[in-house]
What does this fold into?
Amino acid sequence: MKTLSPRHSSGKAKPSKNGEVNTVTVQISREDKYILTVGFEVNYPEAFHNNVLNLSVDFGHTFFYVTRRPTLSDYDIVDTFFSFGPAELGESGKITDEYNGERPGNTKYEITEKTKMFRLRISKEQAEKIKMNSTEFTKKVDNKTIFYDTSLNNTCAETARDILSTSRVSTPDGHGSVIGTGNNVVDIAAYSLALVNPYMWFKNFQATWGDPISWYEKTGKIKAQQGEEKDEDGYRIKLYKSWVLSPGDSDLLPEDKRQVIHDDIRE
It folds into this structure.
């Protein structure tokens, strides 16, 4: 993680005339602060082995949101939230619920598990491009010209990475092999294709930027009871209350976590 250098004001002294006091011209650069938060639901280590994701154990999920902190403010306001997932369950009898063919999509797919987040400083221009590209993709999903389809890699991670790349935001590679579709022929094809998936993308994020922020929603950490799925620290993976964000909302992270910036990737 990097400590960001502040944007300093600049000054220039002008020569005095006739013994008069020098005048100083000061330029103060004030700009809103934009943060890209990329979040991952990757809570089942047994699903990811030797860089291969087993869809029959877990598919994982990736989402992002952009916040803006106005000058001289302590509040981070949501500008864009993007979480692409299926709008309905897959048809029974097909391969797996995840690898289930074309389905209507939803770009405000709810976050239902503990998440691991990375916070990256971006520029206003990058933030505006992310908003524009996310909005355009959402319109196509709502008009049913784009569907959620794992077999075509139209999924949360692939789509999120594409939008960020198109918006001039560079992130680590997320391609990795997958198995566990429930069909040996499809498994072979999926393994060879190396799809962008949340577990591989998260692994490379962590290799690039270190430890993520762990977030259990505002309810906080809750010790798992017998029979409940738990993380490596013994806390519940599933949240009591799922969440999404909308433009104009305040960032849900507390101040201490909002102080964490993994990198400055402004262009």
About this structure: Residues 3-13, 89-100 have pLDDT under 50 and may be disordered. The radius of gyration is 22 Å.
